[in-house]
Write a structure and sequence with these properties.
Distance between the termini of chain A: 56 Å
Strand content of chain A: over 45%
Structural class of chain A: mainly beta
Radius of gyration of chain A: 22 Å
Strand order of the largest sheet of chain A: 5-4-3-36
CATH class of one domain in chain A: Mainly Beta
Oligomer: homodimer
Largest interface: A-B, 59 and 58 residues
């Protein structure tokens, strides 16, 4: 075959590749933007399902991610890479366009999530075993800092509630040490650690408000929450909402609510009550409770639509086939949906026109129009749990 | 040359393409995420400069966009396409990865900006000549709806202050008709129009708050602002801030401030005074003025860092070589910067760790660290004006 012929046949081949959205010579890669991509955790089979929120389809799958129960995900600031934190301590970097694992390290024995720095350069994971935080180069996954949560000689605490803060900083809570630490990784070879001690018994999860100002940890060992105003000249831990918790007469709690899901809408925060069938409404100026909204079960995730006009709630067993929608103007339920069995997670599209809801036991992801509350589409995904969209890369504390 | 040799030489060629981040066979295309891309308007030469906010570099240029004075840009929800609205009525779709114009229409005689619907399907432009709004299919740039701003038989108004609202809706102001219209393009063949009349004399620009709730138009013909609470059961226009404007004794105004830049941080909004060397502070619950901050000149853009902890201000002539930084906790200036001559625009990176500032007459874009306020880098760009990053695709009203 002569050169001219070869080139001619190559040229003929181009349109068919183009029709598939594929580039010649790179059958696995696709030329496209990454702003409307996302992932759904396949909890049972260690697989990441890649989704497109414009076409509302599953566009690929990446197996081999290990134990994905309670897995969470952050994204590189360009939206090309997902970083998946597995329960088994695996940290996996997945290229969403090549649809493959590009790097993977077993970084701990037992892990429960992570965060990425605002500049996208550092990925941090929070570990139960051994207790502490490890910080990795986001590009290479090389370990650049190891910060054991050693609160007494030889004693390491489980770490929970890890969030990113502006300026290559992270905040997290030490379950066994009743402490909150803020680390500054501007120079990863010399990590600065600021310790807040005696913040309350057994912080079990935490969140940072969308502006990065208030770090708030839930307490397992007592009622109330610990809060630090990180913008204060001299930040210190203070107690808020002493009525928040399981109370004196311990209620049966089927699942501790996730704090990262807490919704801040306007100047109000919406919190899942613990054990009670209620969502608490809190004024974010005073951090006092200003109302309670009765709901259909023990709330797990309480999430605001990006514009704050609605708050969506899912529940623990036995009510986890339901999702309720709260109108934040009237503080009342406007709709109860039943999208499928075992609703585990919800994720809003970037501007909130839709919400994606996973129903594990029905192997279904439902896409709901948030204006009409009608089902737009249902996708078949095996045992879906967490749903994460790349737009998280542009948001603080997500 | 035989086939084997050809393939071998092709294989040899691959690493060099890969080293450049290019894919073989598509020299102009790049496999990468789009979440950290952006564009800088080259005002003098009709060229769009493509930038990467992670590498902090100019990565390409696309000429041929016509008159780019006062140009503005929105992005497709995947971050692949920029839509550039030129002063001359040109609407240009640019593929940021292929770095080329993919579609271009001359849609009006004189135009001043546009918006994209939350679902990414519709692009709308606001036109002076002929007065009205045209709505295009975002993919093909086919005209799908034409809404002349006909406020009396045969009389068309200039349109200003166009913003996107949830649910394929747009709001805008009619300069010549003292009116605000909200259109619903759910079905582009039958656009619904809601008209608010007598809202105040000569609305000249407008904004929508980040939650999409309050649409606010500045008035050229009198003092005060017109506001509509779009979440109200029966929305109606009301007057706020009667002291806002040029006042009874008309001050010389070198440039009317841009309203879209107004900053909402927490429950306060920061507004550029007209003519006066002041930034006004407004409570967003009551919409009353609660303070004024003296600044170095007549403010043009008043923009909040994404976390709301700082507000950055630039100025009209003769003070347009300066930029000032306001700390929102103390309501005071913490720094005056001089990044170059004729500062025209500022844009924050998605999580706000840096701000990019264009200095037209120094042909320079400065990248400033918002924590340390130090210059991180300077880029040479011919006559830069507006700077727009793809993360705008995930934000309402941007």
């Amino acid at each position: 075959m002569k050169r001219r012929q070869l080139l001619a046949s190559a040229a003929v081949a181009l349109p068919s590749f183009a029709a598939l959205g594929l580039l010649p010579g790179c059958a696995a890669t696709v030329l496209r933007g990454t702003g409307d991509l996302g992932v759904v955790i396949g909890r049972a089979n260690g697989t990441l399902y890649l989704v497109d929120t414009t076409a509302e389809t599953v566009i690929g799958e990446v197996p081999g991610l290990g134990d994905l129960s309670h897995a969470s995900v952050v994204f590189s600031r360009d939206g090309l890479f997902a970083y998946v934190f597995g329960r088994d301590g695996g940290l996996t970097q997945v290229n969403l366009l090549e649809r493959r694992i590009t790097r993977r390290v077993m970084q701990a024995g037992n892990s429960i999530g992570g965060a990425i720095s605002a500049d996208g350069s550092l990925v941090a994971s929070q570990n139960y075993t051994p207790g502490g935080v490890k910080v990795f180069d986001a590009h290479t996954l090389e370990l650049v800092a190891d910060v054991p949560a050693e609160y007494a000689p030889g004693k390491l605490s489980k770490v929970v509630g890890l969030v990113d803060l502006p300026g290559r900083r992270f905040a997290y809570s030490l379950f066994d040490a009743d402490a909150i630490w803020v680390i500054d990784c501007t120079n990863p070879a010399r990590v600065g650690v600021q310790k807040f001690e005696g913040i309350g018994k057994q912080p079990y999860d935490a969140l940072v408000t969308p502006d990065g100002r208030h770090y708030i940890a839930g307490l397992f060992g007592e009622d109330g929450l610990a809060m630090i105003d990180l913008w204060a000249e001299k930040p210190k831990a203070q107690r808020i909402l002493n009525g928040y918790g399981r109370g004196q007469e311990a209620l049966p709690v089927y699942k501790m609510p996730h704090l990262r899901g807490w919704a801040v809408a306007g100047r109000r925060a919406y919190l899942p009550a613990i054990g009670r069938h209620e969502v608490l409404v809190v004024d974010t100026d005073t951090w006092k409770e200003v109302g309670r909204i009765p709901v259909a079960g023990q709330p797990v995730f309480v999430m605001a639509r990006p514009d704050g006009r609605q708050v969506w709630v899912n529940f623990s067993v036995p009510d986890y086939h339901r999702v309720q929608v709260i109108d934040t103007q009237t503080q009342s339920i406007v709709k109860t949906l039943e999208p499928g069995k075992a609703v585990l997670h919800m994720e809003f599209t970037p501007r909130g026109e839709s919400v994606w809801i996973s129903s594990r036991d029905d192997n279904r992801v439902s896409i709901i129009d948030t204006q009409t509350l009608a089902v737009r589409k249902q996708l078949q995904v095996p045992s879906p749990s967490g749903i994460f969209f790349t737009s998280r890369a542009a948001r603080l504390g997500f």
